[in-house]
Amino acid sequence: MHVLAIDTALEACAAAVLDTERGAIIAHESLEMVRGHAEALMPLIARVLDRAALRFATLDRIAVTTGPGSFTGLRVGISAARGIALAAGKPAVGLSTLAAYAAPLIAADDTLPVVSVVDARHDHVYLQVFGPGGRTVVAPRLASLREALRVAASGAPRLVGTGAQMLAPIWPAAERPPTLVETRRAPNIDWVAWLGAAAVESRSPPKPLYLRAPDAQPQDAAQVARR
After folding, report:
1. What are the domain boundaries of the chain?
2. At 135, phi and psi to the nearest 5?
3. CATH superfamily placement of domain 2-96+187-203
4. How far apart are CA 73 and CA 66, in angstroms?
5. For the chain, how many helices (H) and strands (E)?
6. What percent helix, strand, coil does the chain show, rounded to 5?
7. pLDDT digits over 67-123, tens only?
8. Mean residue pLDDT across the chain
9. CA 162 from centroid of its chain's CA atoms
């Protein structure tokens, strides 16, 4: 199976192709960026497919990160995945950014907990806590830093994500400190592809996982009354 993985949720524009029969990523590219994903994504995907010697029609599945992350970035990636899937007549699956962050750490050692943390701004984070075997013990949520520490600060976990460095310096002295603090700006695109290959199609439609309302809200009070 050939899986095209796409990630534009955070501070990267990335794509990869996994060949499950060969058990290997056969092409990938990731560009660090805060904005401009819409302009960069399709040319990047074209380059990755060219290196993999594949066309859209020869893909078997498209996987995309669905959040939490940038509202604009999520829309870009999910729209591209849906469009490619529709054009190619192949299924698309969605994967959370938090799970993609945690995947390589769980694969390396599934006995220690992993806390995936994404900076949500305004002293809040998005987080998910994974226990032994990669089991979710705290579901994806938006939390204040205090609440995040309350649910995450046990068992000497590994912290990963854009919000990892927000929690590490304020870790409670009474708790065992994190065994790893990894501040990746975006998930590893190769692991998005591997998770996409393992996802159950019927349970993983590519829908945005926002976890909070947009910062920009309609200004109803400022609207001019109609005559």
Report:
1. 2-96+187-203, 98-182
2. -75, 135
3. ATPase, nucleotide binding domain (3.30.420.40)
4. 9
5. 6, 10
6. 35, 25, 35
7. 999 999 999 999 999 999 999 999 999 999 999 999 999 999 999 999 999 999 999
8. 93
9. 11
The CA distances from residue 104 to 59, 61, 78, 139, in Å, are: 24, 21, 23, 19
Residue 53, C-beta contacts closer than 8 angstroms, at least 6 positions apart: none
For the entire predicted model, the pTM comes to: 0.91
Before 172, cis peptide (omega within 30)? no
CATH topology of domain 98-182: Nucleotidyltransferase; domain 5 (3.30.420)
Distance in angstroms (rounded) separating the CA atoms of residues 139 and 130: 9
Between helix 97-108 and helix 189-198 the angle, nearest 10°, is 90
Q: By CB neighbour count within 10 A (0-12 exposed, 13-18 middle, 19+ buried), where does 135 fall?
A: exposed
Contact 89, 106 (CB under 8 A): no
Which tokens belong to 37? 């994903």
Q: Answer whether residue 129 shows pLDDT above 70.
A: yes
Coil, strand or helix at 116:
strand
Q: What is the band of 205 on the pLDDT scale with cuts at 50, 70, 90?
A: confident
Has residue 226 got a pLDDT over 60?
no
Residues 6+ apart with CB under 8 A from 184: 101, 160, 161, 162
- Backbone φ, ψ for residue 210 (5° rounding): -80, -45
Residue 42 burial (CB < 10 Å; 0-12/13-18/19+)? middle
Instruction: Give bridge partners of residue 32 from the DSSP assignment.
Output: 12
CA distance 153 to 147: 10
